Amino acid sequence: MAEGTVESWERQSGESVQAFEAFAVYRDLGPARSLTKAARELHKSRTLLGRWSRQFAWVMRAVAYDREQDRLFLAEQAQARRDIARRHAKLAQAVQSKAVARLQTLDPRELSPSELLRYIQVAAEIERRAVGEAPAAGTVEGRDQDADVASLSDEERRARMDQLRRELERRLSEGKK
């Protein structure tokens, strides 16, 4: 807005304090506003408010005010979504860091393969969703995952866990850039 410009919902040039205060009451009644309701609330005549309304374009000003309030609300919602996404991404990175640290100190035989794979999968999924990505294609869920892991030999399980650890470390290093 240019300096010195008055928004339509603010007091206008030539508008008395009383007329503006009446407009503010009318404006703040929201979508169900009416001159009758404003007159009743102000204990003033509807005729007087009707004259001020026509003279100072109350209907147009109230609509402009409503639009501005909607714009501000949408901007607040967008900022809240960005804040949530940032928090979730940080949380996912923290969980992934813990998983990597644990993986580096664990003998893979201490956890069942399905537990370990699920831990990594959940952390990666949280991170994906936090940045607005769709769930990973081909994500294995629930019993299908257990069946797949159960069919692997110990050597294949170790190799799969190493592969997942490397993938997790790669994602973490990309996330820090």
Description:
Helix 5 runs parallel beside helix 7. The protein has 7 helices and no strands. It is rod-shaped, with a radius of gyration of 30 Å. With 177 residues, it is an all-alpha fold. Helix content is 72%, strand content 0%. About 5% of the residues have low confidence.
Would you spell out the secondary-structure blueprint of this structure?
Elements: H1 17-28, H2 35-42, H3 46-55, H4 58-105, H5 113-130, H6 142-150, H7 154-175
Helix pairs in contact: 1-2, 1-4, 2-3, 4-5, 4-7, 5-7
User: Which value, in Å, is the CA radius of gyration?
Assistant: 30 Å
Number of strands: 0
Low-confidence stretches at least 5 residues in length (pLDDT < 50)?
Answer: 140-147
The helix-strand sequence is: HHHHHHH
Proportion of helical residues: over 70%
Question: Per the principal axes of the C-alpha atoms, what is the gross shape?
Answer: rod-shaped
Structural class: mainly alpha
Strand percentage lies at under 5%
Q: Roughly what is the average pLDDT, rounded to an integer? A: 83
Count the helices. How many? 7
Oligomer: single chain
